[in-house]
Amino acid sequence: MPVLRAVLFDLDGVLTPTAEIHMRAWERLFAPYCTAHGLAPYTAADYFASIDGKPRYDGVATFLVSRGVELPRGEASDAPGEGTVCALGNRKDEIVNRMFAEEGIAPYPGSVRFLDDVTRAGAAVAVVSSSRNTPAVLAAAGLADRFAVVVDGNVAAREHIAGKPAPDTYLRAAELLGVPAAEAVVVEDALSGVQAGAAGGFGLVLGVDRGVGAAALHAHGADVVVTDLGDLDATVLDRPRVATDAAAAAPTEGGDA
């Protein structure tokens, strides 16, 4: 039996390239906002520093703070607009859902191979995502039937669970699978996500470098970093964190430590 009995996958940027769509949606939201309000231009670095991996409204608030802007939080029911943090977040949701409909979604082939391999090896699997769009994305990507446990932004709001970088959503997924955190793997591409995995005492934190950088992922808590999950197989389930501390300081499978 493998040492690690469950694999907890982030969605955007790990299973599906929706992170790329989200990045462009945030740019479509904040680039004109910054121009209209005389703020420093929005860049891709802002996405990784302020938004990536966080619940949508928290991402809005963090970015605004980085520009010295304070808006009232508002309510989730606020109409898309600019008057509150929630209104801006709802405008972003409107933008990204239009993009999903227009562009479609396909999972990363390497991630599907890795999912197949760990599932065949007997690992329980779950999706843990800050996104409230998770059910729609999983369905569009043909992955909905692969995960009996999904802890997303909807579940977090309903159960009052703190979002990433707190480990609570990952801990909840492990609980629902009936597996201790120490026997579960967290798979993340966001700095806030690997922080959550490290803070939760999980058996292994796998970082997937989709642009944030291997060094940054390691620095925030990833034990192993790859550029494609297809570079790994089920043998990773026999590599708990205690066995990979040395690997975290060495060049990784992705090639750029």
Automatic annotation (TrEMBL):
<dbReference type="Pfam" id="PF00702">
    <property type="entry name" value="Hydrolase"/>
</dbReference>
<protein>
    <recommendedName>
        <fullName>Beta-phosphoglucomutase</fullName>
        <ecNumber>5.4.2.6</ecNumber>
    </recommendedName>
</protein>
<keyword id="KW-0460">Magnesium</keyword>
<keyword id="KW-0119">Carbohydrate metabolism</keyword>
<comment type="similarity">
    <text>Belongs to the HAD-like hydrolase superfamily. CbbY/CbbZ/Gph/YieH family.</text>
</comment>
<keyword id="KW-0378">Hydrolase</keyword>
<keyword id="KW-0597">Phosphoprotein</keyword>
<keyword id="KW-0479">Metal-binding</keyword>
<dbReference type="InterPro" id="IPR006439">
    <property type="entry name" value="HAD-SF_hydro_IA"/>
</dbReference>
<dbReference type="InterPro" id="IPR023214">
    <property type="entry name" value="HAD_sf"/>
</dbReference>
<dbReference type="InterPro" id="IPR023198">
    <property type="entry name" value="PGP-like_dom2"/>
</dbReference>
<keyword id="KW-0413">Isomerase</keyword>
<dbReference type="InterPro" id="IPR010976">
    <property type="entry name" value="B-phosphoglucomutase_hydrolase"/>
</dbReference>
<dbReference type="InterPro" id="IPR036412">
    <property type="entry name" value="HAD-like_sf"/>
</dbReference>
<dbReference type="InterPro" id="IPR051600">
    <property type="entry name" value="Beta-PGM-like"/>
</dbReference>
<dbReference type="GO" id="GO:0016787">
    <property type="term" value="F:hydrolase activity"/>
</dbReference>
